Amino acid sequence: MRKIILLPFLVITVFGLQSCLKDKITKTYSVFEPIYKSKAEVQAEIKSSTAVSISNPGKIYMYGNFIFLNEVNKGVHVIDNSNPASPVIRSFINIPGNVDIAVKGSTLYADLFTDLVVVDIADPLNATLKKVVPKIFPERVYAPGFVQDSTKVIVGWTERKIKETVDQAPVGRGWIRRDFFMASSSSMSGTSSGSSAAPVTGIAGSMSRFSVVNNYLYAVNSSSIKVLDISAVNDPQPRNTIWVGWNIETIYPFKNKLFLGSSTGMFIFDISNPVAPVREGSFAHSRACDPVVADNNYAFVTLRAGTFCQGTNNQLDVINVQNVMSPQLVKTYGLTNPHGLAKDGDLLFVCDGSDGLKVYNTSNVFSLQLLDRVKNIETFDVIAWNNRLLVVAKGGLYQYNYSNPSSLSLISKLAVNN
Amino acid sequence: MKKTFLILLSLVSIISGITAQEIKKVQKDSFREKKIFSSQISTGIVEGEQNTNFHVEILNGIRYKTWFGGIGAGLDYYYYRSIPVYLSGIKYLSPRNHSFFIQGDVGMNFVWEDERITNWNEVGHEYKPGLYWNGILGFATGLDRKNAFSFGLGYSYKSFKEIKEIVVQCFNPPCENTFETYQYNLKRLTLRLGWQFNYSR
User: Domains plus CATH for chain B?
Assistant: First the structure.
């Protein structure tokens, strides 16, 4: 009988608990708010300052005994590489919004969000701003839904953690963060030449969007090539804008050609007339991010899937460009998460993300031979020059000797300081 | 779905009442044996704010007089499919074959879902386990020396974290990614029907 009495109690308890059936789902995310400075303040700060440690390395540019290493959206590290076994960070040039660099002579060209800045680096330890060319990269805006104060420059972001209760967390729920605000088209700027191309102006990594060829600076944004005359190095003059197509990502010069990588293909432009690049051939591929390098006969394109690159392919495409009007795919090689690449003679160096750095012999493009693989570093971009390899990786800036390409030897490492 | 739950609840109550009243003759009491290995398979539904879902569990342990202690694991389909793994304690209110019992479970809840990327800007998706507990009031009725049938009503909590790694658009790797974290704290009513096997020499 006592047990039966318990039953109503059970039922009442159950009904009472109905009010306690409220699911609680808490969402935590980051919101980044801009830190502004006036343009005058920012320009006054574009000069050499005390060396700072590397924290978020971007693109690299080698010029003589110096390495210029971009600190993403912050500026440029000036690294004295006279002794590759012991490189020394000499100074840091503050350039907010900077992601691309190029050097000609003693002049550094860098993007500052939408503007191009010209910095005299004759004395890298006392760099001085020479000129600001406004609105060269109009696409370098923060969008959509974010309206920047146009009279000021964003010099940084503060992160604020937001915690909120949500009713439901369905698949494909929203996201609000800096990525939402970042320009999808960022103009970024370019670099200069490829490994064996134009040593006069220095060497850029394959992820670059700047390229200096003789007296011209070519900068690609999401849809076009900007041509700037830099015969007066401190006074670049915009000369031309050539529409290319959407989602242009990288530029690589080789002889009198420019190879452009886009998320949907590779384009070849002839720059026999440097002011007016002429489109010759193109090679379409599935959607992916794709830096490119080339030699006389072949272009090597890495396709990377994931992130905003979309697509599903992680591979290396070898493309016959002997007839530049009609590039033909020779062969595809599977990779893990390829980024930048570099070429020196028959050697091809591929940054394969977390799968490390890979060295191939390309003497037979139908059967690339893997000579060496450096494991345990997450690589992004590479410059190969004179048996010395500069590698930007998650852990910092590495230098290797590749005189024996079957066994790269580490020369030095400038570690990232988190 | 709440109606379904209430209907099932009513049925269980009726069965419980009938069973309790009709069992007048005390059968041979297997509970008098001191230590026995006991295994229980149960299934039922969980009813929460979102919806009603299915669950199934298996519990193994040692029974000592009117006490039971063991380890259990299950499949819980509420919100996201998950596997609760827990320690369980049961107190039978009577040493007889037919007895009400109070059960408490405490453990961890492991989400068993594909960690697939669902948004174009995601590069990582993972689930982290969270706390699991369950309190049950139930009734067990012995069918013979080794088999018993039980049913119970309970209140259950499971939690876990879902973490999405979101890429920041930039052309200069390494790009700093951001994270979205969802903390789920889910509270449900449970209705459980079980079959219990007692092994003794």
Answer: 2-23+35-199 (2.40.160.20)
